[in-house]
Amino acid sequence: MTTIEQPAAAPGTTTGAGTTTTAASPPATVVPRRPTAPAGQQRRRIGGMRRTDVLAVLGALAAGAATTGVLWTQLGPFTGILGYVVVTWLVTVAWFALLVSFDENRPVVKDRIAAFVVHSLGIVLFGALVFVIIYTFKRGGPALPHLNFYTQDLRSTGPQDALTKGGVLHAIAGTLIELGIALGIAVPLGLLAAVYLHEVPGRFSRFVRTVVEAMTALPDIIAGLFIYATLIIIFHLGPSGLAAGAALGLTILPIIIRAADVVLRLMPGSLKEASYALGSGQWRTTWHVLLPTARSGLATAVILGAARAIGETSPVLLTASATGYINLDPLHGPMMSLPLLAYTLVASPEPNEITRGFGAAAVLLILVLVLFIVARTIGGRAPGDLSGRQIRRRELSSLRTARRFTHHEEHLSTELLSTEEWKEEPR
């Protein structure tokens, strides 16, 4: 007997026997289970050095020193400590790049190499600065404890005299006078020129900016020769502190202009727009908004110029000459400065003269530090920070304004009362 298979009935249809088949249920969707979130948020470090970075730096330093040592002593005929240091640094950078590449991808390796190069060069420059300061104070240390070194000049001091005789008072006075004249010339002109370049665009301002950029690369001796040819030869002024100050002012003028111009360019334009929107003019906006906001940067520009002027030697030698006497008159007679005194004394073969020269250089470093602190104290406050004097002036101005408003209210009340009484009088 042959069995005939019947075709399967479609879901939801009725068969011949009168029974209805039910539709098959679709398969259930399976959703993968999510991992449990951590209880606290994990911080991601975006700066600083990790443990792997420290190990990579130490390993690179050890490998670089060893590689250069083998190269210097076994493989090549190299000598000299400077070449050894330079080659060690280059080999250390290469080893550091190799060690970092084991754990990081290419962008991270480039970032680590750039950071290593920048930080290492910064450490080298800081080390050089510390070495210069320590060496200067060490060589000039025997002259610094003596009081006469700061209260006497060299008018009666010979090259072989002891350190208890003579001093650098004439050089300190000459340096301060010449620096004051230079800043008195360069700071007003420099700030005015920077404001002009920033506020008055045009062909002439572009020409002025080009001249300023060209003057930045002007050798210092050229400024000294220019002042020597004009004030001393043409106007017969003679070697003096005024001529030296004018030469130093001409030297630092482009530095102050460029630094101040860059600072003013960095100021947000929204501050000026807000001032103009409130009805202020260009001059009032510049004086009350732009310059106070850029005060800290302008103080830095002045500090850069002062640091350049206080260490110049050749313009002072051409325009003020040299002397062992103290001279407080900037219009007549030669005038000594600390850099020029240090240069002339160190060139002497006598040990005491060399010690005095390094002592003068140490006093110059201290003087620069003091001037830097004073300039930062005066102009280093952030925008909006007021000094004690300014706060007192604001308080007095507020009190005067309050009194004026009170008096005005009393006057209006009196007038109103008089008007009401006049209306109430019988006619």
Automatic annotation (TrEMBL):
Compositionally biased tracts (Low complexity): 7-41
ABC transmembrane type-1 domain: which residues? 172-375
SUPFAM superfamilies associated with the record? MetI-like
Which superkingdom is the protein from?
Answer: Bacteria
Where found?
A: Cell membrane
Transmembrane intervals: 54-75, 81-102, 114-137, 168-197, 217-237, 243-264, 358-379
Identify this protein by name. Phosphate transport system permease protein PstA
| Biological source species | Rugosimonospora acidiphila
Query: Per UniProt, what is the name of the gene that codes for the protein in this document?
Result: pstA_2
